[in-house]
């Protein structure tokens, strides 16, 4: 069960992508909270199908041509975190949701803080859209890769959504 990795340039910095057994396990910005640097036992595999597909789809996303990802995902986490990350996948491109709404969606309406922690621990940034979760008042609250990146991702999605509406 070797972790394979690749890197890709993005408008928000170099991304580190990881996969195990053909499934994407991570999309990380450098220096983000919960950052995991390349480990000595990892294997660079730029052409591994899961990583090549993820690079292509992320490039399309940043170009405003992709609104949904179609990748095999295997984020490592607790059952609660897994439930939260599945709920994040239901937040549509160009939209936002709140920590409270995600807590409701996973059947734990009083667990808003725990949901916030699970959102912050999401190992597959962008693809599992934790950047779409905002505070109850719509404010841009924490983002493991930095609030500035969160704002830029939301702006990218708004622009792409507007272009789609006018096309």
What are the salient characteristics of this protein?
167 residues, alpha/beta, Double Stranded RNA Binding Domain, Arc Repressor Mutant, subunit A, 2 domains, 4-stranded mixed beta sheet, two-stranded parallel sheet, 5 helices, 6 strands, globular
Tell me what the structure shows.
With 167 residues, the chain is α/β, with parallel strands linked by helices. It has two domains: 3-62, 2-Layer Sandwich (Double Stranded RNA Binding Domain), CATH 3.30.160; 79-166, Arc Repressor Mutant, subunit A, CATH 1.10.10. The chain is built from five helices and six strands, in the order E-E-E-E-H-H-E-H-H-E-H. The protein has helices at 49-62, 79-89, 99-105, 112-120, 147-166, and strands at residues 3-8, 15-20, 23-28, 43-44, 97-98, 133-134. The radius of gyration is 15 Å and the shape is globular.
Can you summarize this structure?
The chain has five helices and six strands, in the order ββββααβααβα. The protein is α/β, with parallel strands linked by helices.
The CATH superfamily title of the largest domain: Winged helix-like DNA-binding domain superfamily/Winged helix DNA-binding domain
CATH hierarchy: architecture of the largest domain: Orthogonal Bundle
Shape: globular
Compute the number of structural domains. 2
Distance between the termini: 45 Å
Amount of helix: 25-40%
Structural class: alpha/beta
Please trace the helix and strand order, writing H or E for each element: EEEEHHEHHEH
Oligomer: single chain
Please outline the major beta sheet: 4 strands, mixed
The count of strands amounts to 6
Using the coordinates above, name the CATH class of the largest domain.
Mainly Alpha
User: What share of the residues does DSSP label as strand, in percent?
Assistant: 5-15%
**Whole-number radius of gyration?**
15 Å
Order of neighbouring strands in the sheet with most strands: 3-2-1-4
Let me know the average pLDDT.
91
């Amino acid at each position: 069960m070797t972790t394979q990795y690749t890197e890709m340039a993005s408008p928000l910095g170099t991304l580190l992508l990881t996969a195990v057994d053909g499934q994407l396990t991570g999309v990380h910005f450098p220096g983000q909270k919960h950052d995991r640097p390349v480990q000595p036992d990892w294997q660079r595999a730029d052409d591994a199908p899961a990583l090549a597909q993820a690079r292509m789809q992320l490039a399309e996303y940043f170009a405003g041509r992709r609104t949904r990802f179609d990748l095999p995902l295997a984020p490592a986490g607790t059952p609660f975190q897994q439930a939260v990350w599945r709920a994040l996948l239901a937040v549509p491109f160009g939209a936002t949701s709140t920590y409270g709404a995600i807590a409701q969606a996973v059947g734990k309406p009083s667990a808003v803080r725990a949901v916030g922690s699970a959102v912050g621990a999401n190992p597959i940034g962008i693809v599992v859209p934790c950047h779409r979760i905002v505070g109850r008042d719509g404010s841009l609250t924490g983002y493991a890769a930095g609030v500035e990146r969160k704002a830029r991702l939301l702006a990218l999605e708004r622009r792409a959504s507007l272009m789609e509406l006018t096309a």
